[in-house]
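User: I'm curious whether this sequence folds into something compact or stays loose and floppy. Could you predict its structure so I can see for myself?
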Amino acid sequence: MAKVKVVSWNIWGGQHLPEILDFLSELKPEIICLQEVIQDLDGRNNTAEAIARHLGYKSSYFTPTYEIDAGKFYKKLEPRVVSMGNAIVSKNAIQDVKLYSLSEERPRFLLEALIPANGQMLHVFSTHLLHTHQKPSGLQEFQAKRIAEIIPKEHALLGADLNATPQSTVVKTLKQVMVSTDSAFAPTWSVYPEGCPVCNPQAIDTRLDYLFVTKDLKFHSFEVHQSKGSDHLPISVVIEV
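Assistant: Here's the prediction. I'll summarize afterward.
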């Protein structure tokens, strides 16, 4: 039985990259699911690649979701148009990747990476659902249903910023096909008030980030970590394979 530590983290464009690198260097997870990763339109300056390179890991894969002006979206970054999306970083070589559309309206995607672990292949997913300011949304619920349809029944894990609270239909939908690795649902957002000018959060009092696994996988040691690397707190769990 091999133990695989997995982290999921919305890294807020990597505008606090030194803090992100320090945290991940200390924790040393084998697999990292990332959201709000950015790269220049020519493919350079990808934050997931920078993380993999710093950690000395073999693989990172990024898929863009849409383009933004980094300077307007992230105060600490210079103004320039970049691609933003999801990524997966792995200590072991990623064998294959797939990309699934979750919605054509206000597009969101589900990234899958096949990663070997103890002679088996793990289906590792990373996604970031539509931000609705914690209000019910038919489109967001449609995206969750798509994930539930796509996730295989075995050897799969999902790291996600669902932009939904534990009581939401989104989370309830995913719990029909997967198991949440955390039952306490401690808050993960927002470390910084500027995490959302509409919500204007004044404390870390909202749960938006999750790690799910299929029912065949054993897990333990779920943790919400403390870090100033993003407006979201990183979460981790140990999977037994």
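Summary: Residues 3-240 form a domain with the Deoxyribonuclease I; Chain A fold (CATH 3.60.10.10). The mean pLDDT is 97.
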